[in-house]
Amino acid sequence: MRVRIGFAVLLIIIAGLSLAGSHWLKGVRDRAVFAFATGNLLRLHVVANSNDPVDQELKLMVKERILRETRGIAGARNRREALAFLAANRESLAKAVEEELRKHGRTEPVRLEIGRYPFPEKSYPFGVLPAGAYHALRVVLGEGQGENWWCVLFPPVCHLTTGEPGKMPELPEEIRLRWRAWEEFLRVWAQVKETGLVAGRRES
Length: 204
Prior knowledge:
This protein is α+β, with helices and mostly antiparallel strands and 204 residues long. The chain has 5 helices and 6 strands. It has one domain. Helix content is 51%, strand content 19%. It has a 4-stranded mixed sheet with strand order 2-5-1-6. Strands 3-4 form a two-stranded antiparallel ribbon. The longest helix is centred in the N-terminal third of the chain and has 34 residues, at 2-35. It starts with a helix and ends in a 9-residue tail after the last helix.
């Protein structure tokens, strides 16, 4: 009898853990579906002057400068707030890009635009984004005839996947806390996807 009771208790415990685990996975999945839904994304698109190696290298330098200047976007709670952040900092962003060009002896014009632009299908750590029009910060260098670079600016995937692992930028405490929350969420979501227990999902 004791063996049967013990076995029954064990089954109840296992069932409880399984239920808790399924709720946890569902919570992670639901948050990911909302965070990475196409309607909540803000992307970054940097277009090089040409495909000359020097222009392509400059494109990457400009990209890094933009990421440094937009780290505060991690404090946004949704795309609307992220767009407001860009609008408020548009002038300083343009000046930062021009400064980066001058630093490397370049004087070509820069177009910094915020709007909806077409993007091809692209794979990211959180899943695959389908081709389509997305809200984006678009930076065109010179003639804008070269290969381009793009990433997701909000949620701050660009910042968290291209920076130095574990290195926290100098930001106000509230934004640093949000930064850590996004960092942890991306880490957990990547682990969940690797298990195959939660399939990636596209949002149109």
